[in-house]
Amino acid sequence: GQSLEQPSEVTAVEGAIVQINCTYQTSGFYGLSWYQQHDGGAPTFLSYNGLDGLEETGRFSSFLSRSDSYGYLLLQELQMKDSASYFCAVRSRDSNYQLIWGAGTKLIIKP
Amino acid sequence: DVKVTQSSRYLVKRTGEKVFLECVQDMDHENMFWYRQDPGLGLRLIYFSYDVKMKEKGDIPEGYSVSREKKERFSLILESASTNQTSMYLCASSKGLAGSTDTQYFGPGTRLTVL
What are A70-111's pLDDT values in tens digits? Predict the structure, then answer.
């Protein structure tokens, strides 16, 4: 079967750096995506990793290790507006190349 | 900007009623999706569609059906609503490009309560 695991909640301080981990089990892995969802809002795309390594987009970076079935989202210089839920999602042959979503990580930022 | 709209933000229905949730996208996307989102469970795919009149079951299709008569519109139908279908329903669309991230763009969601 397929599964994704990510922490349910992470707390960090404004201005700090936080890492949200995601481990997955699937066959025929294709890529790992990250989405952000503010309370009451729609998920929005943040980042995608199809190959091993780090992808950087401004204050956000995402990393993938296919051999470890592991990825993370790194948020730097945290701002209060980054308070949201973050979802990892895997696309694989097992899922007919549709996204399988983690349960989400609620990021709480304290001043 | 891609815009995905859903017909209602909030909906209250009674058990046994037939419920229609409408979704429209304005970017000529090939793919459209219906998810439900429940606390602690993430997003679960109900149905998706690659093209007009085509539909594929997702992970939890039981109790639901869909219709895609036009490329821009994807409807979710609850034939006989039940209380366990109380949830947030999210519609999404994507270009459908093979070998790419195929980013999904979401509508604002419909919070359905079945009494």
Answer: 999 999 999 999 999 999 999 888 777 788 999 999 999 999
Question: What DSSP state is assigned to residue A36?
Answer: E
Chain A residues with CB within 8 Å of chain B CB: 4, 8, 31, 33, 41-45, 48, 50, 87, 89, 91, 96, 98-104
A9-54 residue pLDDT tens:
999 999 999 999 999 998 888 999 999 999 999 999 999 999 999 9
Q: Which of A63, A61, A43 is nearest to A53 (CA)?
A: A63
- In this structure, are residues B35 and B89 in contact, taking their beta carbons and an 8 Å threshold? yes
Residue B101 contacts A, CB cutoff 8 Å: yes
CB A103 within 8 A of CB B41: yes
Cβ–Cβ below 8 Å for B106 and A44: yes
**CA-based angle B52:B54:B55, to the nearest 5?**
130
Residues of A with Cβ-Cβ distance to B48 under 8 angstroms: 98
